[in-house]
Design a protein that fits this description.
With 548 residues, this protein is mainly alpha-helical. 58% of the residues lie in helices and 3% in strands. It contains 25 helices and six strands. It folds into two domains: 4-17 and 276-512, Orthogonal Bundle (Son of Sevenless (SoS) protein, Chain S, domain 2), CATH 1.10.840.10; 45-240, Son of sevenless (SoS) protein, Chain S, domain 1, CATH 1.20.870.
């Protein structure tokens, strides 16, 4: 069973997997760093993880500089959580007051924003004395605007408009208006830094942020310093955590080795398998859930847009397209799925005795069933994928000893027919349980990630970014933002299970067989059944073991 998702920049394979993934690891200190500061807005992570550590001293200096600045939380507009941002139609129907069909370059229908020129949409993002944009609009525009311009270009335009609004309120008679608009501008910056923090890896973004903060600090009002300090602390902490995370991934990726190579140099290591490390399948399912949620925590909302970015026909900047395609955390999560599938296949193919292989299959069936009960559909599908890989599925004598009733039920739940109807039904049930949860465990929803990517891809491909009149097709981006915001709600859930570092270390770092090594182990366990398999077996023994 094989499923291919046709994605422009990489290929997702969810049943038969042919690229051995890097070995990844997440550390507790980065998780704590990202979650130690709670706020009304979510702390969501984003894409590119490059070069942050080189800018950290400058960021720290900026924080110290802004420590003298101002902000008052009590006067800031309040914002709802992501789960309350969108209704079933795809967006908040109470966002807009205008009943006109067109207003200032923005087009509405039944009070809902459908489209607008890019400049008008930017102006709609910036608050003034009488207006603050709804958080639904802020999230949707910041998410989708990167299809048309760099974040630093948008930041420059926003800063320019904010400065213009401030200039209009600088007279003595307008001090009350100044007091009204300043917290709104700072709230917009807080929304941006909390929801898309890694946009601010770019020094141009940080420079604009610093300049705008300095301008607001130059006035007489000094009552907002505390919240500016908190905003910058949170931003710097996230950028530092991302830098640390990148270093961990790079280190572990560089030390990844093939399982067969290890077995040839250290034959005694064959005695160690997943069941000796964790004999309880329910505990393993819980540790898999820890890993899934930690990886999800590093995927920023913008990566879902940047994964499918295409050249804007009205954009003359030829460098814009390639620079916007920053999806490293998203791709790392797909690699984790691949690794888990290979790990399952490796653990099944490695035992010499048939009864041990059968016991390992039954063990992973129990793990998969518990993943389903938890709501961890991504690990569930990875386990099913590993058990359906050809080197495992061909072990007929082994499977004859397995009680497969429970596995058949799980395969039925994840059956790809009718566009994964059974899975989608189960996912809706888990999502509803999460909304009415009475415990942390009931809040867990971890979707089958490659299918989520496919859904977003087809949503993106099915509608144009711009209308024939050049307007941005904002109706499309409402629906895109709805899907992404739902995922963002799921990924912020704290894992309620006790962490077992030994088990997690094994899952993340133990070497796994390559595809060829899996086939060789399979043939060594149950001999070839036809001439094609015999020829392949001989070839693999020669190339991998040096035997004829």
């Amino acid at each position: 069973m094989k499923l291919f998702f046709s994605i422009p920049f990489f290929l997702f394979e969810t049943w038969s997997l042919y690229i051995a993934p890097d070995v990844l690891e997440l550390t507790m200190y980065t998780r704590l760093a990202l979650n130690s500061q709670k706020s009304a807005c979510l702390c969501l992570q984003s894409a590119e993880i490059k070069g942050v550590r080189h800018h950290f001293p400058a960021l720290l200096c900026l924080y110290i500089f802004l420590d003298t600045f101002f902000l008052n939380a009590e006067s800031m507009p309040q914002t709802p959580p992501f789960s309350a941002m969108f209704d079933s139609s795809g967006y908040n129907r109470n966002l807009y007051q205008s009943s006109e069909d067109s207003c200032g370059g923005l087009c509405y229908h039944d009070n809902n924003l459908l489209s607008g020129s890019l400049e008008a949409l930017i102006q709609h993002l910036v608050p003034n004395v009488e207006y603050y944009p709804d958080r639904t609009y802020i999230f949707t525009f910041l998410l989708s605007s990167r299809l048309f311009m760099h974040p630093y270009e948008l930041m420059a335009k926003v800063c320019h408009l904010c400065v213009e609004h401030q200039r209009l309120s600088e007279g003595d008679s307008d001090k009350n208006q100044m007091r009204k608009i300043t917290p709104k501008i700072l709230q917009l910056l807080t929304e941006w830094t909390e929801t898309f923090p890694y946009d601010f890896r770019d020094e141009r973004m940080m420079r604009n942020l610093k300049d705008l903060a300095h301008r607001m600090a130059s006035g007489e009002e000094q009552t907002y310093r505390k919240n500016v300090q908190q905003m910058m602390q949170c931003l710097i902490r996230k950028l530092a955590a991302l830098s640390q995370y990148e270093e961990v991934l790079a280190k572990l990726s560089s030390t990844a080795t093939d399982r067969l190579t290890v077995l040839k140099t250290k034959p005694q290591s064959i005695q160690r398998d997943i069941m000796t490390v964790c004999s309880d399948p329910y505990t393993l399912a819980q540790q898999l859930t820890h890993i899934e949620l930690e990886r999800l925590n590093y995927i920023g909302p913008e990566e879902f847009v940047q994964a499918f970015v295409q050249k804007d026909p009205l954009d003359n900047d030829k460098t814009c397209y390639s620079e916007r395609k920053k999806t490293r955390n998203l791709e790392a999560y797909v690699e984790w799925f691949n690794r888990l599938s290979y790990l399952v296949a490796t653990e099944i193919c490695m035992p010499v005795k048939k009864k041990h292989r059968a016991r390992m299959i039954e063990y992973f069936i129990d793990v998969a069933r518990e993943c389903f009960n938890i709501g961890n559909f991504n690990s569930l599908m990875a386990i099913i994928s590993g058990m359906n890989m050809s080197p495992v599925s061909r072990l007929k004598k082994t499977w004859a000893k397995v009680k497969t009733a429970k596995f058949d039920i799980l395969e039925h739940q994840m059956d790809p027919s009718s566009n994964f109807y059974n899975y989608r039904t189960a996912l809706r049930g888990a999502a509803q349980r999460s909304l009415t949860a009475h415990s942390s465990r009931e809040k867990i929803v971890i979707p089958f990630f490659s299918l989520l990517i496919k859904d977003i891809y087809f949503l993106n491909e099915g509608c144009a970014n711009r209308l024939p009149n050049g307007h941005v097709n904002f109706e499309k981006f409402w629906e895109l933002a709805k899907q992404v915001s739902e995922f963002m709600t799921w990924k912020q859930v704290e894992c309620p299970f006790e962490r077992d570092r030994k088990v997690m270390q094994y899952l993340l770092s133990v070497p796994v067989f390559s595809e060829d090594a899996l086939y060789l182990a399979s043939y060594e366990s149950e001999g070839p059944e036809n001439n094609i398999e015999k020829d392949r077996w001989k070839s693999l023994r020669s190339s991998l073991l040096g035997r004829v």
